[in-house]
Amino acid sequence: MYLIKKINKEYLLIALFVLVFLATRVPGTYDDVVNPDAVNWHWRSEQFMVGLKFGQLERTYQHYQPGTTLMWIVGPTVELVKQLNGDIKYNQGTFLVFDYVAKIALIFVQLILSLLGIFLLTKIVGFNKAWLTSFIFSMEPFFLANSRVLHLDILLTLLLFIGLLLTYLHLKKFNWYMGILDGIFLALAFLTKSVAVGGLLFAVGVGGLYVFLQKGWKEAVKFKLSIFIPAVLAFVIFLPALWVDTKDVLLGIYDGIERVGIRSGHNQIIFGEDTRDGGVSFYPLVFLLKTSPFLLLMLVLSLLRVKKPDFKAPSLSAFLTIFFVGYLVVMTISSKKIDRYLLPMYPYFALLAVIGFYQLKEYLQTKFGALAVKALVGVQSIFFAAFVLHPFFSLYPYHFTYTNPLFGSPQYVHENILAQKPFGVGIVALRDQILEKYGYYPTLGFIDVKPMEAIYKASRVFDIRVDGTRNYDLLVLGVNEEIPQKVLDSNYNFILDHTMWINGLEYWKVYVKEAKVR
Predict the structure, then answer these.
(1) 86 burial level (CB within 10 Å; 0-12, 13-18, 19+)
(2) Is the pLDDT of residue 96 over 90?
(3) What is the mean pLDDT of residues 445-462?
């Protein structure tokens, strides 16, 4: 009877996880964000499908990241919608539909991967801790916001986390099937973003070293090959461009990592200063600003009772610590720093918090009794309601504007600590406001034209960094964007006429053009 109740409880919790996961991701995703990278991935996925349909396999490699898993999701999904509707094409009227079905497909893939993560984690730490870990990081505002958009980072996070869990289980007990699965998932993570090659190197290198020290070189070689060979095969199978142009594809991935990821950097405004490299403090700053006080409190409390890691017979937390310290070092060394690059660490943060929380709970139960445990759970519940549930409803559907409220208002954080990126947030609502206020498709000038071009008459959208001021009637700036000097020096003044506020941020500003008096 106890076993039946336990199984029923687990099924109910899984059903609750699925319900909450979908309820926090599906509603509002139709028109909340059209990020510029999503526009790129739609085009790349279309080329990917052309390559598969017509045997032009070189088209299945589009970008150094390389985003292949995302293209496998988006390409067939959009192709199916096209064929069901008479082979319709991308245009300003269909883009949001294609984007929506692609987002839904990605959300369901994320859900399946999350459930697989719970299953694997249950084998290591038990169901309750596995479920709570997955629930916590899935509900983190910053994580949730990224999982609602068409991009690579959540897909990378889940694939990499599953790969690391499989590596750990494979280390605990050698199993060929486990090794094959591990290699496949680590290859899929690499095919999502090239930085995930570190997961494969870690599994084969550090994992192989551990096996060598414990069991000798023969077992170490067997362990390495059981992961590496399936990874290589999966990499080749799922990236057909390798079948026809192996050298150029591999060189393209390497060159992109070295050129874009390491040397070129990425514009950030930190403490009011514009920089191409956020420096050593960037990711700690992102962690504090983008992590909810709920998870921060759990992590702080967990430190009170966290056990000293045993690296000779490592626990899962110690095993993951080795990897993610290395990951953070690599990300910090790289000049290209973006806040979402911290996302792969959120399952790790949640796991540390949950393990420490259970240790503290047991300690309080032994030392002070049930009342102390109830107090601990009560405080955490209040923090969860105030800093996780409330932001979901108050920021809906623009969760990308989330910042930790302990550091002040979103506008204060944006102006004084770390600037918000436009990222196409609210661009559909902006389009509708422009049409309502200024009439039939006025010409528009943007710094980043891609989001508006996808949902507006593309011929009436111009890049203000390239095109002359005569081409557009309205100049539109996103949050943290400034009027370029060439525009200021032109024959026209641009007067602020309309502001679209989003969750306390002066997000979009519309300027009307006036001729300068000479």
Answers:
(1) exposed
(2) yes
(3) 95
Note the residue count of the chain. Answer: 518
Whether the predicted model's global pTM rises above the 0.90 cut: yes
DSSP 3-state percent helix, strand, coil across the chain (nearest 5): 70, 10, 25
Q: Is the dihedral of CA 459, 460, 466, 467 positive or negative?
A: positive
pLDDT value at position 265? 65
Query: Residue 251: what pLDDT?
Result: 86
Q: What is the pLDDT of residues 204-214, one digit of tens each?
A: 999 999 999 98
Distances (CA, A) of 62 to 248, 253, 357: 12, 10, 44
Helix ranges (DSSP H) in 257-315? 282-290, 293-302
Judge contact between 50 and 173, C-beta under 8 A.
Answer: no
Phi, psi of 274 (to 5 degrees): -80, 130
Q: Kindly provide the residue ranges of all beta strands, DSSP E only, lying in 351-440, ordered along the sequence.
A: none
* Rounded average pLDDT over 83-112: 93
DSSP string, 170-238: HHHS--HHHHHHHHHHHHHHHHHBGGGHHHHHIIIIIHHHHHHHHH-HHHHHHHHHHHHHHHHHHHHHH
Closest CA to 62 of 45, 75, 79, 39: 45
Comparing CA positions, the residue from 28, 278, 14, 24 lying closest to residue 143 is 24
Residue 325 CA to residue 345 CA, distance in Å, equals 10
Q: How far is CA 172 from CA 178, 199, 315, 319, in A?
A: 11, 18, 10, 12
Task: Please state, in angstroms and rounded to a whole number, the distance separating the CA atoms of residues 277 and 338.
Answer: 10
Distance CA 326, CA 310 (A): 18
The residue to which tokens 């009027």 are assigned = 483
End-to-end CA distance of the chain: 89
Torsion of Cα atoms, 375 then 380 then 386 then 388, to 10°: -160
Long-range contact pairs involving 366-374 (C-beta distance under 8 Å, separation at least 24):
none
The bridge status of strand 492-502 relative to strand 273-275 is: unpaired
User: Alpha-carbon distance 245 to 256, whole Å?
Assistant: 17
